[in-house]
Amino acid sequence: MIRNVVIGVLVAAVAGTGFWGYQEHKEKNAILINAENTYQRAFHDLSYQVDILQDKIGNTLAMNSRTSLSPALTDVWRITSEAQNDVGQLPLTLLPFNKTEEFLSDIGDFSYRTAVRDLEKEPLNDQEYARLESLYGQAGEIQKELRKVQYLVIKNNLRWMDVEMALASGKENADNTIIDGFETVEKTVSGYSEAQTGDPTHTSTKQENKNFQNLKGEVISKQEAIQKAKKYAKMTEPIEVKVVENGKGAKYGFYSISLVETKTNNEVDMDLTKIGGYPVWYINNRDIQNSKLDLNQASNKAVQFLKENDFESLDLFESAQYDHVGLFNFVTLQDGIRIYPDSVKIKIALDDGSVLGFSADDFFQSHKKRDIPQATLSAEEAKTKINQNVQIMEERKALIVNDLDQEVLCYEFLGTINQDTYRIFINANSGREEKVEKLKNSEPVYENIL
Amino acid sequence: MKGISSKWKGVIATGLAVCCLAFSDIHASAFTSQVIQKGAVGDDVIELQARLQNIGYYHGKIDGVYGWGTYWALRNFQQSFGLPIDGLAGFTTKKKLADASNFNAKFVHTQIQKGNEFTYYGGVDIAKQIKPNTNKKNTKTTGKTSTNTKQATKGNQKTNTASNLPAGYSQNDIQLLANAVYGEARGEPYIGQVAVAAVILNRIDSPSFPNTISGVIFEPGAFTAVADGQIWLSPNERAKEAVIDAINGWDPSGNAEYYFNPATATSKWIWTRPQIKQIGKHIFCH
């Protein structure tokens, strides 16, 4: 009798475990499938977008009427961005897939630039037309390769989860149709990229501008760099110093210097350029417990620091307080014109007014003496280009980098519509509305609303 | 306009010594000595907003953050009262404002602490200007946390300059970034954390990566913390500070788009990227 009961209990236990295991298995599968589906969706979406992209570029080539060309190019731009999004969702980061993404970005930039232009006044020139044709051809090649991969994926029921496993286990060389397929796509594209760089209308990616080519001065030694760093840090000896030179892949030469004040254990880190020893950035991350200075006093400290360190003619244009730190953003002022690309940011501690941080990355990349052309429009004329509903409160001249990566002289207007404030830039020569941005109101803390 | 204002300053300055004691008694709750500048936060800003609203210049929320709405209100006030129009609440401006308006500090601070929606217009019964916050239960702690977090987030929004940021960042964006930074680099030195945040931001700018914060962070295989779920650990304040520094333009990575830990990296490909520098355990590269 007891034996039967024991057997019964055991049978029930085994059955229960089995059932539980089955449930677990089912759940795991469900999640795997879910993940797999996301990848599949992104992949098929990508190849669909590239299909459409190719068609649309083809359409623009055939278009004659300018009024239809602008919307079509805008559409190309939109689809490019969708395709880029899809690429981003695929587990390809460990594959060298950059060229394809850059190609998509190229099409995007080109179509955007041409679409926003008034094609009635400035139609596509021969060079641009030729570029459009070559982009069309390349899109066709990519489309062909992608379709091939897609076909194999569907036919052999290939799974992206396997690709991820293969990549994660480091067996890139293993035979994997999807990986091989994408490598072919990549090769196809990189075959074109060489030819493209010679094209004058080729938009450089932002990275290529970041070489600090405007810096002046002699190359400084490690010792000189340490001296300069100590001057910025204003620490008392003994100081523990560490200096490292930039890695081989850096786009410009710099020293990374770390200073630790032995007495207080405060640490200051900074990068100084090898040419001239200019500070690219500087961070002192000590704790600040209380505020003794107000934001206005702190801004004076920031101005003083800039003067001491030979940053000339800078104009404070934004300030903000975070707990016990004041953050200030300065831009160059040349002949009363704000040069927005030249920006320097400074953090001041509100307890003793010392400099906590400094960032002049943007400044050193773009700062130079500029020949700013005269404005052909008057401020009054520029004002007429602005939406009637905006009540203009402030105006000045400013130099900005527009959407097409060009420096343009503008009239800057600050204006309001009801409770919102807008910053509007009107090109001082063409009257084009270069940039309109709604300046943020303070955002409520959701924790308190919900 | 300027001539009048400097004259005013002179009058005030000479009268200052005499009047100081008398005034401090009458305006017990009046401003501290600070010159209130755009971007400031705190009790003085609350008083500034409440007073400007009391005499009908400010129509926004009284939240203790000196933003654009407050700025225009103050400038309009300065214009009407013949003061120099600079958006700075210095001694003269504060005094003029204090004389022209009422400020019931207890009422205003109580409403803020309770999280109520309220206004403070003059000539209307203040009790009728409250819309109680019915959702909030733990009212005791809100006052404190609200000012703290507001200070942190306020700064982020203000970093949106005309030149360097593609778009504004919301609190949620910063939270997501802080999660990623904490998951990826919580054992790293502070500048290492700023650098990781900067890499994420550099990727958003780069043509080779998605154009959104979530796109970059959740790109499969891009970050180990995302793959193994460490991204969902609660980040500490330091990670958030690092993110805010990076958004404000600090980039210790030297414009890197990749980084890896040489001790644990499995991919051979990552070693082929041009290396910029090493911070802590991470090597940063283009």
TrEMBL record, chain A:
Domain Sporulation protein YpeB PepSY1 and PepSY2: 180-373
Pfam families: PepSY, YPEB_N, YPEB_PepSY1-2
Superkingdom, natural source: Bacteria
Residue stretches making up the Sporulation protein YpeB N-terminal domain: 27-162
Xref: InterPro entries: PepSY (IPR025711), YpeB_N (IPR048402), YpeB_PepSY1-2 (IPR014239)
Residue ranges occupied by any PepSY domain in the UniProt entry: 377-437
Listed NCBIfam families: spore_YpeB
Protein name per UniProt: Spore germination protein
Protein source organism: Peribacillus huizhouensis
Source species taxonomy: Bacteria, Bacillati, Bacillota, Bacilli, Bacillales
